[in-house]
Amino acid sequence: MSEGLAISLASEDEREWAARLMAGTDPWIRLGRDLERCRAVCNDRQDLLFIAHTGAHVGAHAGGHGGGEACGLLLVRRRGVAGAPYIVSLAVREDLRGTGVGSGMLRFAEDFFREESRHIFMCVSSFNGRARELYERAGYSVVGEFKDYIIEGESEFLLCKRLREG
Q: Is 83 left (phi over 0), alpha (psi -120 to 50) or beta?
């Protein structure tokens, strides 16, 4: 699937689509993030919100919409952890999970930030095993744990990946 994937900055309409995807998906449901909170996150202009499209023109990139149907979101804070990019959220439509969309969005983020940063960070909830497996397969490692941070009895794991040497 990822070879037919185009990723571009979100349009105004796509920001609402992204908020609805987040609000209707775990881990955000379990973390207690309602639609209003997800709208606020998706409309925060300090972050970059990218939308993945299936069946799109493969040449599309961060500068323009490639057509096709929206299938995932990638929300990144350019200066998140220790000045390095931080992936705030990554979500894929339920019917397309396991098809390579999530992996494609991770590769996109890594390529997008490789020249300006040596590392990229993200968090994953302890109860979100499927996502953690994806991130670890993609080369992310746990560098910290926040016990009972959002949900009592659960942890948030801080993950990091080195994007380049020196």
A: left
Q: Which residue has the tokens 């609805």?
A: 20
Residue bearing tokens 């996502």: 131
Report residue 97: phi and psi, to 5°: -65, 140
Burial of 32-59, coded b for 16+ CB within 10 Å and e otherwise, reads ebeeeebbebbeeeebbbbbbbbebeee
Distance (Å, whole) CA 25 – CA 129: 14
The rounded distance, in Å, linking the Cα atoms of 4 and 101 is 9
* Bridge partners, 155 (sequence order): 147
> Tens digit of pLDDT for each residue in 77-105?
999 999 999 999 999 999 999 999 999 99
Angstrom distance (rounded) from CA 104 to CA 3: 8
Strand ranges of the sheet holding 141-147, from the earlier edge strand across to the other edge? 6-9, 47-54, 69-81, 84-92, 119-125, 155-162, 141-147
61 bridge partner residues = 64
Phi, psi of 91, deg, nearest 5: -145, 145
The tens digit of pLDDT for each residue in 41-79 reads 999 999 999 999 997 544 444 444 456 899 999 999 999
pTM, 2 dp: 0.89
| Token pair listed for 41 | 């996150």
